Amino acid sequence: MIGRILRSADFQRVLAAPQRSRSAHFAVHYVASGPSTARRPAAKAAPLACEPVAPQLSPELSTGGAPQGPLLVDESLPAAHEPPPAGHWLGLVVPKRHAKRAVTRNLIKRQLRAAMLHHMASLPAGLWVVRLRAPFDRQQFLSPASEALRECAHDEIAVLLTRAARSPLPATPRPPSPPGARGRGRAAAG
Q1: What are φ and ψ of residue 128, in 5° steps?
Q2: 3-class SS string, 177-189
Q3: Which helix (DSSP H) or strand (DSSP E) does residue 130 occupy?
Q4: Distance CA 21, CA 13 (A)
Q5: SS (H, E, C) 5-67
Q6: In CA terms, which of 28, 44, 57, 80 is 20 to 30 Å from 18?
Q7: What is the mean pLDDT of residues 82-111?
């Protein structure tokens, strides 16, 4: 099963990584980690005793004896220090400027999800973002959901993910050198 990337912070993190594979219309980005989790809100301090706005009204809530409902979304998430389970997460970026009609965008997204399921066994676990980086030629593909467009997108995506599976994992990035470090080396050598 493939999870979906939902948080914009995860999209930004993956898109900041170098491209893993690229074709005429698509680019694939990859980060070897799981999605981020929401931070839990800090514990609330004890409520301050305050004077009622209207002295004739009771400051007690009418829902004091109500049964406790299900957990809130943030309360049901694992703690931020726990590593997320290993797996594949997919994010799709199909902008309107490259695919004007919703029919075309949906066709491309369906093709991308199906190809990712097909190639999942050969791809390393982590966050994957596939983005449409150039439009398909409207002169060549007259109908937005034509069989020709479907076949063209399918073939290109298959090649793209096969290349992404074969490319080596990205090296861990080196920390940036301090400012002026390059100038000192040249001055010392010369």
Answers
A1: -120, 130
A2: CCCCHHHHHHHHH
A3: strand 126-132
A4: 17
A5: CCCHHHHHHHHHCCEEEECCCEEEEEECCCCCCCCCCCCCCCCCCCCCCCCCCCCCCCCCCCC
A6: 80
A7: 86
